[in-house]
From TrEMBL:
It comes from Candidatus Viridilinea halotolerans. The chain crosses the membrane at residues 20-38. Keywords: Membrane, Transmembrane, Transmembrane helix. It comes from the Bacteria. This is Flp family type IVb pilin.
Length: 54
């Protein structure tokens, strides 16, 4: 019966660990996407700004 208590007490920590890993994966993906498209987006914004100047 003691093993059931040990297994059950680890469950919340495991859930928090999984949520943490998911958040890290999302953050890495977001940084990767911004790195790949960052220059292109900045060029689009800059070109748009230059075209609107009098």
């Amino acid at each position: 019966m003691a093993w059931l208590f040990v297994v059950r007490s680890r469950a919340p920590a495991q859930g928090l660990t999984e949520y943490g890993l998911v958040l890290v994966l999302i953050a890495i993906t977001a940084v990767g996407i911004l790195t790949l498209t960052g220059r292109t987006l900045s060029q689009v914004w800059y070109q748009n700004l230059v075209e609107r100047m009098p």
